[in-house]
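Worked example 4.2. Below are the chains of a multi-component assembly; read each line carefully before continuing.
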Amino acid sequence: MANVERRSEDGGTLPITLVPVDGPDPRAEGALVVPRAGIGRSLSAPTEPPDAASVSGSDPLDPEAIRRDFPIFERDFGGRRVAYLDSAATSLKPRSVIDAVDGYNARYSANVHRGIYALGEEATAAYEGARDKVARFIGARDRHEIVFVRNATEAINLVAATWGRRHIGAGDTIVLTELEHHSNLVPWQLLVQEKDADLEFVPIDEEGRLIQANFDALLRTKPKLVAFTHVSNGIGTINPVREMVDRAHAAGALVLIDGAQSVPHMPVNVAELDCDFFAFSGHKALGPTGSGVLWARRELLEAMPPYMGGGEMILEVHLRSTVYNDVPWKFEAGTPDIAAAIGLGAAIDYLSALRMDRVREHERLLTAYALDALAHGVPGLLLHGPHSAGERAGVVTFNLPGVHPHDVASLLDREAVAIRAGHHCTQPLHERLGEAATARASFGVYTTTDDIDRLVAALRKVQALFA
Amino acid sequence: MDDLYRAEILEHYRHPHNFGTLEHPDVTQEGSNPLCGDRLTLMLDIDEQGKVTEVAFTGRGCAISQASASMLTDRIRGLSLAEVSKIGRQDVIDELGIEISPARLKCALLSVDTLRRALEDRVAWQAETEEEPA
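Applying the procedure described above to all two chains together yields the following structure tokens:
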């Protein structure tokens, strides 16, 4: 443990007890809900070798046990539990996260970094403790590199509005990809319109993988920034981030990674990825809505102008000038979503106890199971994205010929099977796929093969209805 | 799930009435539902007495939006604009005769909202809020 002091907003000093970033395994810290493991139905998919970085199938997650930690599965949907297959939109929340949020609101709901009294210090310690958990979870070397925001969208907008407005000028190029969520597209459109700069896009192949030769060609135009998603929320493609980062850096570009769909589902280490900016949403990672994170290298954050002005982001304010606070607080103007940050910390404890290599292996096996079950169980179904589960996260996107995805989703809802239908905030990707809309089933730690069996059975009923 | 869509809805979806284009329409109006990417193009022939003599639509969409367009175009052919102006959003919901969840309301109302925009210069529409019908 280290004690540091930081000037509080009202001029005093405020001791904050910090857990070092390279501190002990969170499972050793006590007071965590350790998910049960080792019983129940396990998955096997002999045709799919495990990821190189992943554990073998000998230590699989037990989703049935995990479900007992998620109160939503106690709800009755016409005699059934919900088959929740929309985790890419937002994840369900375990009891420990709900309790962490409730605990803040019920027992110590004071503001952070202000009150010189026990409740305020307790709130500050919990909020800053959550920052330490995030730093450790994503492999940040320095807790000052973790900026709390509302979601990945806000993180990307923050970078575009601060680093982007300072460093992107007329004629500069930003390279994106055809896979991007609107949140990693529209902020850059706004920036290049303002600066008279250009956007270029790495295209995808027939399986929804980025065409690396085109990426290399675009790098020869010397872009200032390359921004792309770690995992496609639209079709599940896992991009080769480290290799792309290395090549972008060699070409002189900085790299922003949208990690909204990777952080909840696989081990992520920003130091190993060697990127410059990394954004993710807490609410897709078992945390509360309103929790999100921007990570950036400290020297970048320190050189960036503030995003919003107000309280907390300052050290000294005079009528005509202000001395800004240190990073990351410089970017956290106003009272933050304290409860959400604390809840995100609890979500990270939960995921850490499960171990992200096991989470990835669970979802890879589920994806292989789903691809096989859908291809063989639903005649004529059109599957999008990479064919191999090793190249994709737990996102399975499809069209049922002759039936609009909205009808599919409405009819599946009658069977308490919850999927997403539409363009999933990726309209350019859908133009590329030649579909106005698709249906998408996406998985989480609590997803079981039974959920997928129910999906397949319900799709067959839809087919029969429309035949 | 069989109870969600009546057989008549599915029949209109499979074989929509008035699906196609008019050669020289007096009015053409496009409508879209950004949520699901549905698009609808509505074409009307209107004679000098202000009567809808012919109507057609094209586009793609879900069963609810296609069936509602099919039913609505059936309903307005031969009506005067004064009669058309009395058709409200709730009438369209009632004619579909199925439970429409809030998320699907835009699908159900795409055709009538497109019709209202198509005729906004010609018809004094009966006042109706843009809110969802009760």
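Take a moment to check your reading of the output against the notes. Strands of chain B lie at 27-33, 38-46, 52-60. The interface with chain A takes residues 1-5, 10, 14, 35-39, 60-64, 101, 104, 107 of chain B (CB under 8 Å).
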